[in-house]
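Appendix B. One record, verbatim.
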Amino acid sequence: MIAIETEESGPRGTPGVHREDVQRVVEAFWTTRGAQEAALDDQGRAGGSARANGHMSAITKLVAQEFIKAGIPETCIVERQPYLPGYYRVRKQWDLVVVCDEILVAAIEFKSQVGSVGKNINNRFEEALGTATDTHAAQTKNEAFGQVPPWLGYVFVLQETSETEQENRSVRALFPTDPAFKGMSYNQRYQEMVKRFIGDGVYQAGWFMATKRTEEGITYVEPLATATAEAFGVQIRGRVEYVNAVRRAR
């Protein structure tokens, strides 16, 4: 199981994610990335930071803690190679999976984008959409998860740079594109992606953060009202209440 942080800003059973908790894990995100880049031979060049692991660990543990606060036993948090079946492919390894009494409580992806947004934004879209689509198809086609449909979450951390904030990115294509994207920056496109994922039920919950590191310190914002830490925590508690009701009825 995942080792849960023991230092908390509130009592163990206190619901919700506090801003100081989010600030702490965002700072850990940057600190871990920096340490990993320094340890690599190329100091992060040629995709070194992307190859490094663990920079999302503190954020993952914070989310895992929310499930435990909501009443999920720590033993239900799957740490080692949490593979779930697919339909178009045999299986997919998720970042955080919660399973209790053979019920898939949740499966959550944790992704980030630091630099090189123009080269990687389409890959992030395709990965996120493909992962969720395949998992839901496994349920609708094969009932892979039994009578309780999967609950999927998506957590995304974006570094704010001049590249991510430049508006009026090209929307040219061989056929007309969705006018909603006209004038958007990369940051806004990521927000629209997460908003539509949640609205269309591709993912049942999401958390989007934009962050930057300057000489003044590390800051973050949650610009999408439907994908804040608070909203994500509320949806986690709702899911746990539902699953626990199913467990009691068995």
